[in-house]
Amino acid sequence: MRRLTCVVLLALLTPAASAQSKAIEQEIEQICDGPVLAFISSKDAEPRVKNNSGKDFDQADPLQDSAFVQSTQRLVPIFEATYPSERLLIVLSASQKINAWAIGSWKPHNHLVCVPLAFAEFMGNEDELAFMIGHEIGHTRDPNPLCGSYRSYVQLAREQQVACESRADEIGYWFLRQAGYSPFAAAGGFGRLEMYSGDTQTGLTGLFHQMSINHPITPKRIENLRRMLIEEQRAAR
Questions:
Q1: What's the whole-number mean pLDDT along residues 119-126?
Q2: Taking Cα atoms as reference points, which of 163, 167, 162, 183 lies closest to residue 135?
Q3: Which of 28, 38, 130, 178 is the most exposed place for a label (fewest CB within 10 A)?
Q4: What is the pLDDT of residues 51-64, one digit of tens each?
């Protein structure tokens, strides 16, 4: 499978020598757990998802109508308008992990979100995937810089990690709504992941279970999102 070319990486990131861009290419593949299939950068003249050779998608590209392409094309311009001095790079990798992750300030003023192909296909729904990507973007924009990277995230106490996740949910919801997606997609995405993980902890058992994990339990996350929806509806009146 082809990989991102040095020329493309030079265009995406700050000016660098050829050897440096090759190192960046390898770092992206290592961080995102596999070869790059597609990517989008907020600093393009017109943000468009490109295939792994750096070219715009055409009719021959099987990913052209995928949830990844459609959702990121709507999310990235919002990031760019909100944070004009920052660069966001969202990468679709060949990883088979059912997860997504981010590194805030991966390079100075450069933020990286990794979306494995298996995860994008598992979500299956453009709206749900948009929320999950928005959630990862949320980690990069958290006021606590340690929340913005899985490298530093592990240094935080469990209570702080839970707070990181809750704030990322809120930012992800904001991106979801700014992009014009249904607010119910957020709950749908969490429900899909809960079905996959097998988490059935609810009620009092769930509260005790919460004390041993670094993410809010799913019912609590949906409750918080429901509160945000109510506040949004009130503000619109």
A1: 91
A2: 167
A3: 178
A4: 888 888 887 788 88
Whole-angstrom Cα distance, residue 187 to residue 224? Answer: 10
Distances (CA, A) of 57 to 7, 78, 207: 18, 21, 46
DSSP-derived secondary structure for 38-72: EEEETTSSS---EETTSPBP-TT-TTTTSHHHHHH
Place of tokens 């993980």: 197
Closest among 103, 215, 87, 99 to 151, alpha carbons compared = 103
pLDDT in tens, 129-184: 999 999 999 999 998 888 887 778 878 888 888 899 999 999 999 999 999 999 99
Q: Exposed/middle/buried for 194, CB within 10 Å: 0-12, 13-18, 19+?
A: middle
Question: What is the rounded distance in angstroms from the CA atom of residue 190 to the CA atom of residue 145?
Answer: 25
Buried-state track 135-151, b at ≥16 Cβ within 10 A, e below 16: bbbbbbbbeeebbbbee
Q: Which residues pair with 156 in a beta bridge?
A: none
Residue matched to tokens 């006021």: 143
Q: What pLDDT score was predicted for residue 216?
A: 74
Give the helix ranges, DSSP H, for the chain.
Answer: 6-12, 18-31, 67-82, 117-123, 126-140, 150-153, 158-178, 184-197, 203-210, 218-236
Tokens of 60: 């021959």
Structure tokens at 90: 């969202």
pLDDT value of residue 2: 36
